[in-house]
Amino acid sequence: MTRTTEHLTAAIESDERLDRPAYDLANATSLALQPTGSAAQPIQNALHGTWLGHPLHPALATLPVGGWTLAVAIDTAGVLGVTRDPRTTARAADIALSAGVVGAVAAAATGLADMRQIHGRDRRTGLVHAALNSTALALNVTSLVLRRRGRRGAGRALSGMGWMTMMAGAYLGGHLVYRRRIGVDQADRSPEPRAFTPVLAFSALQEDRPRRVEVWDAAARAHVGIVLVRHRGRVHAMGSRCSHMGGPLDEGWVQDGGLVCPWHGSRYCLASGRVLDGPSRAPQPRYDVRVRHGQIEICRVQEPGDEALTPADLRDAADDAAQVTARTLPSGARKADVVLFEHHQLLRRLFEKVEEMAPDDPERRDMMRLLAEELEIHEHVEDEIFYPAVRPVSEDVPVAHAEHQQLADMLAVTLRLGPSTPEFETQLRALHQAVDHHATSEEQSMFKEAQRLGDVRLRQMGAEIEAMLDHERESRARKAFRDLKIRLLEGPRS
Ligand code: FES
Ligand SMILES: [Fe+2]
Ligand SMILES: [Fe+2]
Q1: How many whole angstroms from 190 Cα to the centroid of ligand 1?
Q2: How much is the mean pLDDT over the chain?
Q3: Nearest-ligand number for the alpha carbon of 447
Q4: pLDDT of residue 384
Q5: Secondary structure element (H or E) that encloses residue 92, with its range
Q6: How far is the CA of 186 from the centre of ligand 1 (A)?
Q7: Whose CA is nearest to atom 2 of ligand 1?
Q8: What residues make up the domain containing 201?
Q9: 467 and 328 within one domain
Q10: % of the chain exceeding 70 in pLDDT
């Protein structure tokens, strides 16, 4: 199925015969808007969803998808005799169908507006997407007419066909968004730089001549482009990659207090990064700017919900650490990273042991259970103690949590396989590699960043971790729970 749909989509994307009608359709939309003069821009802003901050087309497309699916479901229930009153059933189906038709017309208007800004293979897909959805709309309108004339059976058949056509159109719409990234925010939202960083000599920036500079984002291992604009004596800075489709804002121009993207004309407020004119909907990343010793310095303005580490966050973390006095510290306590590294080594050795054992060794399953237990305990102490504590100083925590989830899923699959099967060997190797990757990246990045918490805090945390490791291994109740879980995962085979 996947291969067939992918082949069909690829055939559409590479069919040059679609270029002419696709161009004509996009051009017809432009021609319809041009005579409205200065009203054209507000109309386009409304259709694109610039006012909403999100694309309007996918939101409206949910109306025909929902309405027409509901109509087909009600029709089916009526035909199967599940509903009691045929008149009410017919009326409910008609209402759902009509609501879908209204939504489809609105979705078509917004979709046509968006289509003007896509090109090449995406415009070809857009054309077929539009054709399928227009066919679905025509089928459903005809269905409504037939139903009103009392030809309900034919009406049902047509809306059934309309539903299938709509789903084919929706598939292509999904392809455009999720595979081709049409309509998603394409700005670079790196949180760097978190502290004021010099990027250019003030004298090198001319009035109303945008200029691109770069900063390094160590976590993303990438350079981040920023556009500087000097306007009426003030310097402004925003992300240089346009949030609409990634156009180069540093090649744009200044107009009415905004920076215009050269690709499709989106205009962003110089002071706030807000979208003044679409097709873009998402604001540009913003930076605070100051001039010191003849140098322009910038600092990223964090966005709501950012889990960002600013110098202030780091100071807070250091203050917290200072509050932990040596009095609360057990003598000889080891640092958390040392304790966890040692546990990583234990896990690595356990993997090697299971791998070395003969497939039919009766003790292999017990060794695998021990490995599963230790891995579970390890993830538990990190989730409970280590990760929350290092969150203020390390950006790796969300990824590490995701990897724990992935390791738990892989462990569940491994436990379900008999230790003497070839599948077990393959799965065990994959799990070993995944654990090794996870542990190594913790050691190379998170453990190093954790040093910023200070020696005292790390030793206190190390003592907590060792206590929890002992408790997890010794507590009867915890052990019984883990055993039960592992046996359930192993399935009836054991
Ligand atoms: S890329 Fe489309 S307006 Fe910038
Ligand atoms: Fe971990
Ligand atoms: Fe770990």
Answers
A1: 19
A2: 90
A3: 3
A4: 95
A5: helix 86-115
A6: 9
A7: 264
A8: 197-300
A9: yes
A10: 94
